Amino acid sequence: MIAMVISFFLSHNASALELSLNSPGQVEINEEFSVLISADSDENFDVKIFVHKSESDKIPSSDYISEIYSEDKESWSNPWYYLQEVFPEKTEYKIKVTESPGNQQICLRLRKSSVRDSGFEQICQEIKITGEEQTQEEQTPVEEEIQEEKETVHEEEIEIDLSDASEEIKPLSTNSNENEKILLNSKQSQDQDEPQVLKTKQGKNRTWIIYAFTSFCVVLIILLALRKL
User: Fold this and answer.
1) Exposed e or buried b for every residue in 211-225, given b needs 16+ CB within 10 A?
2) Given 51, 80, 102, 174, which residue has the most CB atoms within 10 angstroms?
3) What would the mean pLDDT of 197-225 be, rounded to a whole number?
4) pLDDT value at position 199?
5) Residue 44, class by beta-carbon neighbours within 10 Å (0-12 exposed, 13-18 middle, 19+ buried)?
């Protein structure tokens, strides 16, 4: 049993990639710089290199503050998306930070091109960003397009959150229906508490007898009065 556990951990460690990310320790905002990457594998990998300002382990797209140069598109691209099947054929990449001066993190992610659902390997290190941010008026059309892509991805993440929240809210509508039922039942109980006068068949007969006797007496008195005249 112990031997099986040891062999499991050895095989897990053996399968993990050893990544290397060589980048400058300090860069200027909106100035491109090069990074070199390496890994102890000859397999094809998708590559994602990005600088972020997130304090969470789950880095949202809205916290990406860089762009990566895509040779296929011949333009700067949103680093949220992987460059597919580029490593190990390509090991040098151009990056540009567009906002948030200060001490941030630059990260490298490698994902197997053949099995993209298998997860990724990641390595991050600190990088210092200097300079001043561009205003929205100073942004180029390409930078504006990348910013719109980031906002679109961020909106998709938010929609997923609201759908989960909506599933949690559904039981509340059931409770409101139950409250309505309780209110209706209470109204019915109040109506039942009000006094109601019910007449039975015998009671009705007695009433008619009294009316008939009274009418007979009235007619008899009238006849007696007429005879005296």
Assistant:
1) eeeeeeeeeeeeeee
2) 51
3) 78
4) 52
5) middle
